[in-house]
Write a structure and sequence with these properties.
single chain, alpha/beta, Aminopeptidase, eight-stranded mixed sheet, binds zinc ion, binds N~2~-sulfamoyl-L-arginine
């Protein structure tokens, strides 16, 4: 049986192997779909997880991770969700009673692979500045790896979506870390995520979109491209606060101190994926910014491997009662 190891970061190949192993061992509850290819031709693979009861009309929770190459904790967290729903099925099957879950654990495999390729820093925590404009450190790479026409490499996939494209903190300079791309959805990776989002929105099954990022320690809801709160912001705040409270009350040495708010409260930036998912019909749409701190240690995007276990466990609290969330399409 494939078992998810929480003591190191998986490579792209290890993630693919892990997913394939699950599909073989749990064929009645797991389905893999290649939803696109990265610029360098790596597979973008979703895993669809059900309880195997054959119902095809359930609401869907769609989670993605790894938009930004350096945010290593995000795909690790996504793998932990997968592991809990598939391998720890007995403990968690109530979460699959009314929902199917679709998870895309690595949106930007080229950028991630590149960010691991530095010789010097691979096993070491280094502090990357948030607004990184020059790629002095391979490990701090953020964008995809698609060359731009004249100079510099990479598009910021979380500035490449169609809603509010180019607004706020989104750059037109291909050398910047927040380069929005030559046009909306110019990157094959953002096209792939859009296809999944549209599929689920159009069928009316998509109820929660959750995009995992790091390392702000804040859970964000629309909008990010203008200073307006989502129409059903109260529903967002309720759902998010329940999660934040559960994590704060978890039995951890350093209880987390998440905040929440609309995306623009972090900074105004158009073209992100959660604004897009909300616009096209997901009634709940979140950007979950994992933390950069544990106790006194600030690790920003690269938690030391000994902390992986507690950081991912914190995000999966299964001893709270299942509430009855409500939502309204906008
Ligand atoms: O800038 C981003 O894409 C996200 N932060 S990160 O540090 N992970 O890069 C935040 C996106 C939130 N959305 C907006 N502010 N529009
Ligand atoms: Zn990010």
């Amino acid at each position: 049986r494939p078992e998810y190891q929480k003591d190191d970061y998986y490579t792209y190949e290890e993630i693919q192997d892990y997913l394939k192993g699950l599909a073989e061992s749990y064929a009645n509850r797991v389905k893999l779909t290649n939803v696109g290819k990265s610029y360098e031709n790596r597979n973008l693979t979703t895993i669809t997880i059900s309880n195997g009861d054959g119902r095809k009309d359930k609401n869907v929770i769609f989670i993605d991770a790894g938009f930004h190459a350096r945010e290593w904790l995000t795909h690790t967290t996504a793998l932990n969700v997968i592991d809990n729903l598939v391998v720890n099925f007995e403990e968690n099957k109530r979460f699959l009673q009314d929902y199917d879950w679709i998870i895309l654990p690595l949106v930007n495999p080229d950028g991630y692979t590149y960010s691991r390729s530095g010789k010097k820093f691979t096993n070491e925590t280094i502090y990357c500045p948030l607004a990184y404009t020059e790629d002095h450190e391979i490990k701090c790479w953020r964008k995809n790896r698609e060359p731009n026409k004249y100079r510099c490499i990479g598009t910021d996939l979380n500035r490449n979506f169609g809603h509010g494209w180019g607004k706020g903190d989104a750059s037109s300079d291909p050398c910047d870390s927040t380069f929005k791309g030559l046009s909306k959805f110019s990157a094959s990776e953002s096209q792939a995520v859009r296809r999944v989002i549209l599929d689920l929105a159009n069928s009316g099954r998509g109820v929660l979109y959750l995009s995992l990022h790091s390392a702000v320690g804040k859970i964000l809801y629309p909008w990010g491209s203008e200073e307006i709160k989502a129409k059903n912001y109260k529903e967002h705040e309720e759902v998010v606060q329940a999660g934040i409270d559960a994590m704060a009350n978890g039995n951890f040495q350093f209880p987390s101190t998440y905040k929440q708010g609309p995306s623009y409260s972090l900074y105004l930036a158009g073209g992100d994926s959660s604004d897009y998912a909300y616009e096209v019909g997901f009634p709940l749409s979140l950007t979950w910014e994992l933390p950069e701190l544990r106790g006194n240690l600030n690790f920003r995007f690269h938690p030391p491997t000994y902390l992986i276990g507690e950081l991912v466990d914190e995000t999966w609290i299964d001893n709270v009662p299942l509430g009855q969330p409500t939502w309204h399409h906008i």
